[in-house]
Structures are given as C-alpha cells and as structure tokens.
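Worked Example 4.2. Read the sequence first, then its structure tokens.
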Amino acid sequence: MTGTIRMSVPTISGELLLSESVAEFCALHPSLKVEMRLENRFVDLVEEGIDLAIRTGTMPDSSLIARPIFDSRWVIVCSPGYLESHPEPRSADDLLSHNCLTYTYQESGTANWLMKRPGRNGIYELQVNGNLSANNARAIRKAVIGGHGIAMVPRCMVYEDLQDGKLTEILAGHCGKVLGIYAVYPYTRNLPLKTRLLIEHIIGSYQKYQPLFLSFPLGLFPRYRKRPRGLRHFWT
C-alpha cells in the first residue's frame, strides 16, 4: 500500500496515545504516510480533505460515518493540598462554594457540569463558579495540581496523577460526564484499505488503554443526550 492518510485528532488523545499508535502503524506500513493534525476545533472533513478523524462527544446526524470505539469517563478532582485548606465537598451542591476551574470545550457549556445522583438514573447540569477557564484541559490539570481549585477532567488525562497521589478524586459516583470516542470519516461506499487498517490499529491501541478511560463496564453508565444543532463535535 502507498499514499497519504490525512487525519485530525483531539489534542489530549493525540498526546496520550495516538501519536505513538500512528507511528507504530507507519512502521508496519513504511510505504504509507500519515499527516496527523492535533487540534481542538471543528473540522469540516470534506472541505479540508481529512480522511479520518478521532472525535469525542455526541455524534449528531450527518453525512459522516462514526464508528464507536468506547466511552471516556470524566472525574472531579483536586489536589491533597487543596483539601488541607478547604472542606471536602460531600454533595454536588457543596461545589457551589468552591473555586471550580472549567474547561471551555464542553457540550453542556463551560460552567455547566454534568452530574448524577448515586443510585439514581438521569443526568442533570450543575452551574459551578470559578476564577479560571481554559480551552486546554492540560492547563486546567496543572492549575488543579497546584492547589488552585477543583476541576472536572477526562479520567485518562489524570490517571497517573491519581495513582501517584498528586490528585484526589472527590464526589466519586456524582460525576455524570461520559463521552463516546469515535473514528469518523466521510461517507463512502468503499473505504480505502489503508484507512480501514489504520482505524483497526487505532481501536486496538485504545483498547490497551481502556482502564485509563473507564472504571466501570461499558453500557452501565447513563448517557447525556442533547438535541443536535447541525454538524457539531466536541472534544476532550
């Protein structure tokens, strides 16, 4: 096989595992070239000539094909140092009296956190307050590690921080944000073999890292649904 595959991936996934995964794929197929763009913005795959995109969020109806990979769970975290000087939240409403650092790229809105009540079905939105928001989740992570507040972030991004004790998960069971991860490509009757093989390779890579994304069986977590507004995608 020869040729070039142009792909777009979200920044966190690209840095966490896709850069290595795609490099491995290129080593397996030395006659192929992959141009990978890491970006947290809407990309019109057809207009910009993108063969494949990895997307996280709700997939609205469109002319694109979205192949599910699995779900990505988010968690509410803070640093141990923050808890030394602030009371630990025991309920979702307690968050209203804390400095909540927010991530701009959220389907529900920057300051609206998706919550659930343990033991009950359904997801609701809680509007939090804080003095810092950013369009880069890693920037929020650094601020939280520094003890500057509480944040809701992708579990995969802070997995090692939780294991090392740099961060502590709070309100476990109350966070209601779970987003699907998809391989997305323009509709075609015959998907090129090189693209199909890359998708399979990427899915295999994600499966190896599944514990970083989830801590419960697939399909057992309530999903938040929002009416699609045209062709919109959201990233982690």
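Now turn to a second chain, presented in exactly the same format:
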Amino acid sequence: MPSKKIRLAVLGAGNMGTAVAQILAKNGHRVWLWDYNPATIQAIKADGENKQFLPGIKLSHNIIPEKSMQTAVEKSALVVLACASPYVRATTQHLAHCITPPTPPLNLRGGSGGVIIAHVIKGLEEKTFLTMHEVIQSVLPAILRRSVVTISGPSIAKEFVQGVPTAVVAASENSKARELVRHVFESRSFKVALSSDFRGVGICSALKNVYAIALGMCDGMRLTMNTKAFMATAALHEMSEVVKTAGGKSSTVHGLAGLGDMIVTGLGEGRNRALGERICREGSCKFVFKDKTHTFEGVGATRSFYEFARKHKIRAPLIQTVYDVLYCSVDPCKAVEIFFADARFD
C-alpha cells in the first residue's frame, strides 16, 4: 500500500462506522469519528472503545472522537458517511454546510472542492428510487458530485474489524476518487475492487435485502440447501434483469456487490434473513410493522422494487412473492410454495 497518510473523517459511529474508522486508523491514517449523538462520542472518548455498537474492540489511538461535524471534516481529504439509510439526506445536508473548498488533495477529473465523499450505506430512498450514491449527489454542491464513491459488498463489521479477509467494491464515475478510496482502505486482509457502475452497485446493495427475506423464509420452513440454492439462483437471474433495466451493468450482479453480498446477507446472520425466517415461523408479518426499534431495509425496498418491476414490465416472481407476504397478507409458507411451483429459468 502507498505510504502517504492523509486526514480522514467518518460520519456515523455505529458498528459499521466504528469498524471503518478502525481499519483506516490501523492503516496509519488519522481519523476523526463523528456521530449525531454526542453521548456516543463521549462514551467512546471515555472507554477507548464503542461498547454500545462494537464491544470488545480496543480502538486505535489514531481515531479522534469528535462531537462537531465541522471540526471532524475540516481539512479532510476523504469523508466516509456511515449513518443509517433514512438519515443520509439530512446528514449530507449538514455535511454540505460544513465543507469549505480547500486546495484539492488530488487533481480529480472534472474538478473537486478538495474532498472526496464516500459512503458505506446500503439501501434506496423509497420515495425517489434513488440509490444512496444519488441521494448524496443530489444534496452536495455541483463541484463535489463527481467525487462521490459507493463502497459496498460482503462486509460484516464485526468480522473485518478483526482482520478477517474481506473484499469490497468502490464504485464511482471518478477514477481518481475510487483509486484514493482503495489507497486508504486496502491492507493485507481488506481488499478493494474498483468499478464505474455506481448505479448497479447501489441497486444490488438494496435488492439483496429483498432476497435475504425470501431466503430467510426458506429457513423458517426448514427447507434444505438444495432449495435455497434454487432460490438464490433465481434471485441472481432476477437481480440481473432489474439492474440492467435500472441502468446498471449485469456484470456487477455477479461480483462482490451482487452475488457476494447476497451470500452474506441471505445465507448468513443478517437482519433481513432473520426477518424472513421469523415471518414463516410465526405465519404472519404483522409484527414487522409494529416494531419501531429495528430497521429492516428489505421491507421498504420490496415495495420500491415491486413498483419498479411493474412499471417496467419486468418478470420478477421472487420480488412478487415477498411483496405478497409483506403487503397483501398472503400466507408466507404458501407464497414460497407457489414461487417454487411456478419458477422457471428460461
């Protein structure tokens, strides 16, 4: 990895934001870590770790917890957004007011206000069908819009922060911006692929949550790996059609942002997979809309992708299956059985 160290900021001190700050700091960079909740920052300062969201990980001395976003982003060459998806627009608006245009650290194509804005947030803005990349671009001043980078892929925070080999993709229309992201993130155990397809990467990062719910339903019905492989293959085919129609590249679906992330989310311990499992075991999804303490990204994404598929006349039976369960009160086990009975791969 190149030896040059730069000043960085991470906005959002949940488990992902804290883990990102830690791997950047272990690469030798000075990282200012901010959160909307001052109590979280105060606790990190006092404890030297994030006991609430990432317990047991002693944080690097290169991490500076900071209550002021203005101070955190001042003179930073790279700012990484790591807030929850519902707060991306508001956080970016706050960020836009904090950024002053210093001398650019890199000669970015198309110009730059001197800072690159990356994010590790997965999901869609439901009302607009914008990816997180596009939401951030829509809020930032024009001079910064080509400096946005999406970081996505199979990346469980509690794993990569402990040095478990992990690979992600950095996607941006700006080659210099994504190259800087690779420079600051990469290590022996954390690898970064590069892509220009930020639209496709963003769609994959949201759509895989819908399929994770479906795969969780298989677990709730105690179906075997044969059957889950059947469903995962169908999901991959369907994802490819949606991504191409949405303006992304089908090759992205078969990479880290698509197949890779779907394996982790749909076959691992993710919230959306666990949600699907619980829905089938309880025979109902009523609890989903009563739960105000957890965010299930796949629930809202299901409605967005269902409406998108209808509008563009895409055959998407798996999205339809999850939609019927969540929004049409169809029995979850019956819906899954119908999906398998009607499935085809031509």
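Notes for the reader: The chain is about 50% helix and 10% strand. The domain at 7-196 is CATH 3.40.50.720 (Rossmann fold).
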